[in-house]
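User: Teach me something about this protein's shape.
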Amino acid sequence: MLKSKISSSLKAPLFFAAGATLFLSMATAQVVIAPSSPTVGSANPVTAEPPVPRPATKPCVVSLFKNEEFADFNSKTFTYTPPASCPGPWAKVVFTADFTVTAGTQFDRTASFYLGHANIYYGTTAEPSNTLSPSWHVERDVTDLSAIFKSSQTGEADLGNFVGVYNGTDYNGIIYANATLKFYPAAANAPAAKVPDAVLPLPDAAGGAVALNNTQSQLAETFAFPTNVERAYLDIITQSQSQDEFWYSCSPTNVAAKFNNCPNTGFREAEITIDGRPAGVAPVYPWIYTGGIDPFLWQPLPGVQTLDFVPYRVDLTPFAGVLSNGQQHTVAVSVFNAHSYFLAAGNILLYLDQGAGSVTGDIESDTLSAEPVPTVTENLKNPAPGTYTGTITVSSMRDFVITGYANTSHGRVETTVEQHLDFVNTQQMNETPAVYIQNIVQSTEVHAKTTGNSRGTISETHRDFSYPLTMDYNFTQNADGSYSQITSIQQKYVKQTTRKVNGNPTYFSKVVNEVSPSDTLNFSPSFSFLGNTGQQSVASYTFSDSLGACYSRTLTAANGVLTHVDDSQNCGKPNGQ
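Assistant: First, the predicted structure itself:
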């Protein structure tokens, strides 16, 4: 009985399961706009993340939709026309959106917006309460999608939201949103961005993200690629849903029923193929939505990237020569160990050889295996009926190298992609008739290196990612028959980028995004909710690069409201001192 109560608290129902694209352009100095200071004492959602850096030039603003209502599961279409007064080229293009949910009862929802089927925004919404109608702002750099902004397009906003009575509960929170694109024209002090020449949506169809229900499910699209591809990338988002929403808490299939838990272990990973051949790997970020585990944890500070997902960029450049051979090619994405289910969407970004109508080439070597081979170690004891204690660990380590060449108008270019992935998920389990404890320590480390060799010039791009997650979950029946659910979480996203030419560093950047909440839910012996106690949270975001950009903000919250804002304008020097 206790396990079923824990399951209903921890796992979102299938019907209500919820759901950014960070596009990387050439590094150029930008004006960092100081974010508005959040309001201390407010319960409105707020993050420590900075606005998108942008030129000082005045932008042209194109509205995609205004005050759009989301109260059903129908896609909302809109039209887009390029700004006549800013025809391009552009130094920067920024997507912005503002959301609000009416006060009441509602789940977090997945929001994904598309233009010409290309994804321009992906995130989730904040849950309201009877006393709070949450409003929030998101923005992202979509400069790398400039190719689709050059012509009129039809857009689609997918934000399914059930309004009505379900299982005796009136879900009456209606979501509204505005969305715009801001175009910053190139100028003498704001050079045009070097952007992809073509963007291929994945999937290239209405309806947005595709559901992946198991390891064999695929998001696959067949394209007639240009015949002069010089570089290729895939920006991919794989969003956990339904029973996979808390995939990092899942158990090995042989013991999942003992804990009333999801199967397939606490390991998931995205696999990318080209024509069935392994072409890349993308780690899955453990996003937690605002209704996740305990909604009070995320008020007013949502989890890392919860309102605006950051996709993982897969370098497909070794395949440039293959993609340019004039034949159709199928790019596919699957999620290893998917159970039920993941949503997947992405964009393929192509840089073309402007000096040649065709590029030839091939893959020279590819050591990437079709699937990972994780190791599962179970150390569980069953000292009494209904009692289990011990640890479960699942780990996966992968190393691969893919090398390909392309004969371009400026000579032969050889590209090597090397990647090391190291994943470990350890769960400390303790279940008795009166206690359920599941403490999770998860580490995802990715070290990716792309090396290009052209006419004796060797360029290197190093990208190092770290996605640490710690969750302590304790559900206890107290001596008086009441129940307590105590949860604390530490969630972090770290990315470090280094570029070199002939061994000499040319650019460096590092971003650290972290949120650490804790809270206690209290229930009566009949399992009526009595309220929460001890809620507190800290969110911080820091960024610096070798061009002199620097940003730091820390937010502190307690009892559901913002209590302190700390901006270190000079990166580590409090209050700008």
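Now, about its shape. Residues 1-29, 573-577 have pLDDT under 50 and may be disordered. Residues 2-576 form one domain. If you'd like, I can walk through any region in more detail.
User: That's plenty for now, thanks!
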